[in-house]
Amino acid sequence: QVQLVESGGGLVQPGGSLRLSCAASGSIVNYDHMRWYRQVPGKERELVATITNGGVTNYAGSVKGRSTISRDNAKNTVYLQLNSLKPEDTAVYYCNAVQVRSASRVLEVWGQGTLVTVSS
Questions:
Q1: Burial of 65 (0-12, 13-18, 19+ CB in 10 A)
Q2: Tens-of-pLDDT digits for all 120 residues of the chain?
Q3: Which helix (H) or strand (E) holds 49?
Q4: Which of 29-50 are b and which e, b meaning 16 or more Cβ less than 10 Å from the residue's Cβ?
Q5: End-to-end Cα separation, the chain, in angstroms
């Protein structure tokens, strides 16, 4: 089973940028979807962005236009570029790998998370 390790989080001022990385221990090609989620204590985990093996991307309305999810299959790494950061972007960001085996059998793997704090 693949292991995911996020990095790139930290403290950034409003309007700044960060590039988060999700390094996998195995081939990310084995997973149908690679996703970034974020979560604030007391709130539900929110899907931020997703990218399929075919390169199809989707973004949450809250980050659309100022974020980019990408993948480097050779490096087994998924990235999330965040620009024009706002205080409300503050959260723990998690990497998620999804393998659809059947309509009723889905395998998910989660990273440990990386904290992004947007504050002046």
A1: exposed
A2: 899 999 999 999 999 999 999 999 999 999 999 999 999 999 999 999 999 999 999 999 999 999 999 999 999 999 999 999 999 999 999 999 999 999 999 999 999 999 999 999
A3: strand 46-52
A4: eebebbbbbbeeeeeeeeebbb
A5: 40
